[in-house]
Design brief:
Elements: E1 3-4, E2 14-15, E3 29-36, H1 41-55, E4 59-66, E5 74-82, E6 97-100, H2 103-107
Length: 108
């Protein structure tokens, strides 16, 4: 018995994972947007992914993270679209596009 991807400091039977596995089809575009609560980033991303899904033959997926603050908190939008079905149940990791809509986040 062994584990991969976590450091098992109890049994010491861990195998190191030397690379990140990307199971997303190669034709899938992945983007992540960092926004500031109430700045319009989430709304714009919801509208954009809906337009792509409604008016192209692309498959789409979107997930959104919100800070507990209603306005002024961190928001993160994860968008995927491509020619193949998207069945990923996790947030974006290997990105084709990154946007940061608040310079404060760049400096952290």
């Amino acid at each position: 018995m062994f584990t991969i991807g976590i450091n098992d400091d109890v049994t010491n039977l861990s195998l190191t994972n030397s690379r990140v596995l990307d199971l997303i089809p190669a034709d899938t575009f992945q983007a992540k947007f960092w926004g500031f609560g109430s700045d319009g980033t989430v709304g714009a991303n919801k509208a954009a992914i809906k337009i792509i899904g409604d008016h192209t033959d692309k498959y789409v997926q979107a997930a959104f993270e919100y800070d507990s603050k209603k306005s002024g908190g961190l928001t993160i939008s994860h968008l995927r679209f491509g020619d193949s079905p998207i069945t990923s149940e996790y947030m974006t990791a290997t990105l084709d596009f990154v946007a940061c809509h608040n310079m404060t986040y760049v400096r952290k």
